[in-house]
Specification:
The chain is mostly beta strands and 374 residues long. The protein has helices at 3-15, 24-31, 37-53, and strands spanning 83-85, 88-90, 96-98, 106-111, 117-121, 126-130, 136-141, 148-149, 155-159, 165-169, 176-178, 190-196, 199-203, 208-213, 216-219, 227-231, 238-242, 252-257, 262-268, 274-275, 282-288, 291-298, 304-309, 315-324, 327-334, 339-346, 353-360, 371-372.
Length: 374
């Protein structure tokens, strides 16, 4: 696509956004001062498309830098995924934030409701926190490049270098310290879900074993072993994964109600269930080698609503995340050709809308060219 053609298409999309002024020159000047022209065009395409489709608001030792400034009160409470692509984060409302990072160096992305951007970096596994304008505020050492956010994106947690758990809350400058996760030997343990800043579900990377609070660790009594993949926005349901002979490769999924302590729905055929922003649907992905050949959406009875399966021609999913309560953002790639695109699909995995057209990229086994927020 030539730049002239791109500008015309951008102007057409911007006209459809009903008052969101996203001209090519305005966005390029605001968000891509340090990026090349090609990168600017790609990011603006994401911004225009995301803004057009998300129209209804709903919702290195133990310490860090010398002193982090108080975060600016720039709320980003529009529900849905943010996208890191070519050094720019595009927020759900279409705003863009430049970051001086390469996707190859980033494993996870979280955008807190106060506008701060939290990244888990590949090497040497530090956690980075950026201000809402993209300025680097702090670095925190970590045992692994893994972060876990709450359903409301108002808290994000990780295991620090000293094996304690750190929780950074929206509107709070520095992370709070929680006790470590009990593990044999010198292992960090996993943070499987963040219910809120003071209640975390933790485990051994295979099973969710307990709840971590500022007071300490308490074992869970669940009746059967499973690992929590997500918690509903209201905290009343846990999406879980458990071993089952019905699917020896991926196991099976369930919805667990912690109040009566029982499984209320079960299903097989996918994994890694994540709740929609309104808590009424879930999606799951199954695959390997950092790619997914199966994607599916479900209702709260875990009855399938829609499904994607790779046709076997190299086309797979790199990542997916909720764009809003009834749509997904899907990063698609082909592991044979290393070409990438970003799409928006409905619950039935139909009516796909192209957000970023297909373009060349890097090996999807090791790089996420479109990194979607957790």
């Amino acid at each position: 696509m030539t730049e002239e053609t791109f500008v015309r298409e951008l102007e057409r999309r911007a006209d459809d956004v009903h008052g969101v002024p996203l001209s090519f020159h305005t966005v390029r000047g605001r968000a891509h001062r340090i990026r090349r022209r090609r990168r600017a065009a790609a990011a603006v395409g994401v911004a225009a498309a995301v803004a057009a489709v998300v129209m209804v608001p709903a919702a290195l030792t133990g310490g860090g830098s010398d002193k982090a400034p108080e975060p600016a009160p720039v709320p980003t409470d529009t529900p849905g995924a943010s996208v890191l692509h070519d050094g720019v984060v595009t927020l759900p409302d279409g705003q863009t934030v430049p970051l001086d990072v390469d996707n190859a160096d980033v494993s996870q992305l979280v955008v807190l409701t106060d506008g701060r951007i939290v990244l888990a970096m590949m090497q040497p596994s530090p956690i980075r926190v950026y201000a809402p304008d993209g300025t680097l505020e702090a670095r925190y050492p970590a045992q692994s490049n893994a972060i876990t956010a709450s359903a409301q994106d108002d808290a994000v947690a990780w295991v620090a270098k000293d094996f304690t758990v750190r929780v950074l809350s929206s509107g709070v400058a520095e992370p709070a310290e929680l006790p470590g996760i009990p593990m044999p030997g010198e292992s960090p343990g996993s943070i499987d879900a963040v219910i809120d800043a003071e209640h975390l579900l933790v485990g051994d990377w295979n099973t969710t074993t307990g709840e971590l609070t500022p007071q300490g660790y308490e074992e869970l009594t669940t009746g059967e072993p499973f690992r929590v993949s997500d918690v509903s926005p209201d905290g009343e349901l846990w999406a879980v994964q458990y071993a089952d002979d019905a699917d020896p490769q991926f196991g099976c999924s369930g919805l667990y109600d912690p109040d009566p302590a029982q499984m209320v729905a079960r299903g097989c055929g996918t994994a890694n269930l994540r709740f929609s922003p309104d808590g009424q649907h879930l999606f799951g992905l199954a695959g390997d080698n950092n790619m997914w050949g199966i994607g599916a959406t479900y209702d709260l009875d875990l009855q399938e609503v829609g499904r994607y399966e790779s046709a076997g021609n190299g086309d797979v999913l790199s990542r997916a995340a909720w764009a809003d309560a009834t749509h997904l953002l899907v990063a698609r790639t082909n592991w044979k050709t290393s070409r990438w695109s970003l799409e928006r699909v409905g619950l039935a995995w139909g009516d796909a809308a192209v957000v970023v057209p297909e373009e060349p990229g890097r090996n999807p086994e090791i790089v996420q060219e479109f990194l979607l927020s957790e």
